[in-house]
Amino acid sequence: MTNRFAVILAAGQGTRMKSTLYKVLHPVCGKPMVQHVVDQVQAVNVKKLVTIIGHGADLVKSQLGEVSEYALQEEQLGTAHAVMQASSILEGKEGVTLVICGDTPLITSTTMEELLTHHENEGAKATILTAFAEDPTGYGRIIRNQKGNVEKIVEHKDASEQERTVREINTGTYCFDNQLLFDALKNVSNQNVQGEYYLPDVIEILKNQGHIVSAYQTPNFSETLGVNDRYALSQAEKTMQLRINKHHMLNGVTIIDPTNTYISAGALIGQDTVILPGTIISDETEISANCEIGPHTEISACKIGERTIIRQSVAHNSNIGNDVTIGPFAHIRPESMIHDEVKIGNFVEIKKAVFGKGSKASHLSYIGDAEVGAKVNMGCGTITVNYDGKKKYLTKIEDHVFVGCNSNLIAPVTIGKGAYIAAGSTINKDVPSKALSIARARQVNKEEYVDKLNKKE
């Protein structure tokens, strides 16, 4: 098999984005654009991947890590100039090089493979990925001769009025014979309106040298979208959203309203899970089978067991077990561990806490920095008082404890196994196992107090 290489162009700042975040790092469905591209490129088994970096170089390298080698384009002088920066890594090697822009997050490995296969079958030395555009404004045009062969690519700003009527556009993705590519790059001129070194000029150079230049027209124009501004970013987001949702639905997940359900590219969802409208599932969330999530629920970086129901709630960076019920209006904050068969009810906040099997906090409670055992009942309004203004402390509640309503547990404190806490208590000392702890003032009724008060007034 022919060696395959890839060059990803990711050096531009993206001024039209009007952002301090570099263009290729803007997320689409929770993943930076350039990461989408790299993930798809890896699927076509390239031997070497080189990312051309410039603006935001360190951030791009931090995002992609060791899956790519890098070449720095210190001054952005055009796409041909950008590819030339990879010469120290790729020049002279035998094989085919795929060149693709880092701001095309919708392109798939399937389309890349079709392009590469077409290139190899045609015996071409350069192949252009093209598409038919209803509105080709801004795109380079593919100019063909009477036989249908590619004559040249003309950038929109350099095109004549007649050439601008052409609707077959250059997507900015190419295959080249690697050795011929770097030889031709040395002959690219910047004599054009922009004064830049255009990569499409390599096509004309190779054609004039007598090499076969081909084009593969993808039927999927949406894949070729280049994101240059926030409007295009929103188009990419919508297209990716529907693509991801379709993938999950075809794998056995019910999504009631795909247009109002937002699932990140890295999420995993088990069969027969139902996702209701207004739900946002982001980051590397894993949801097991037979769950029900939503409506209007936000899940981020969580691992959720089977048959769990989460309604109108928020959960971040936590593990949630099987047969758990959460919500409505609950908040599971980071580093929480919710074991099986737990009930977290309305207006309950869990933060950095372990909640044991079968335990309940049904309403209006804050459980933070706590270890809650199995079969514990946390009464309405229970609060673990974990912060003294400088440090946070642990509340430990052992198995089978019953905490009455409106109780304050002032950490650090341990409630022993099977203990009872009387409603309205403020506990600031350890409670032994099976004890009843009452920590509240004795009730005193002042007879006829109101009448006496009224007389004074």
Element layout with pairings:
Layout: E1 4-10, E2 27-28, E3 31-32, H1 33-42, E4 48-53, H2 57-64, E5 69-72, H3 79-84, H4 87-90, E6 96-101, H5 109-122, E7 126-132, E8 141-144, E9 150-154, E10 168-177, H6 178-185, H7 201-208, E11 213-217, H8 230-250, E12 254-255, E13 262-263, E14 268-269, E15 274-275, E16 280-282, E17 286-287, E18 292-293, E19 298-300, E20 303-304, E21 309-310, E22 314-316, E23 319-320, E24 325-326, E25 331-332, E26 337-338, E27 343-351, E28 354-355, E29 360-368, E30 370-372, E31 377-378, E32 383-385, E33 395-397, E34 402-403, E35 408-410, E36 413-415, E37 420-421, E38 426-427, E39 436-437, H9 449-456
Gist of the model:
Keywords: Acyltransferase, Cell shape, Cell wall biogenesis/degradation, Cytoplasm, Magnesium, Metal-binding, Multifunctional enzyme, Nucleotidyltransferase, Peptidoglycan synthesis, Repeat, Transferase. This protein is an alpha/beta fold and 457 residues long.
Main beta sheet strand tally, sense and closure: 16 strands, parallel
- Regions with little confidence, pLDDT below 50 for 5+ residues: none
Helix content: 10-25%
Strand content: 25-35%
CATH architecture of the largest domain: Alpha-Beta Complex
Tell me the name of the CATH homologous superfamily of the largest domain. Answer: Spore Coat Polysaccharide Biosynthesis Protein SpsA, Chain A
The chain-level structural class is: alpha/beta
Shape type:
elongated
In CATH's first tier, which class of the largest domain applies?
A: Alpha Beta
Gyration radius, rounded: 31 Å
Q: What is the number of domains?
A: 2
Please give the alpha-carbon distance between the first and last residues: 100 Å
Total count of helical runs of at least 4 residues: 9
CATH fold name of the largest domain: Spore Coat Polysaccharide Biosynthesis Protein SpsA, Chain A
Report the strand count.
Answer: 39
Average pLDDT score: 95
Binding site for Mg(2+): 103, 228
Subunit structure: Homotrimer.
Protein name: Bifunctional protein GlmU
Active site: 363
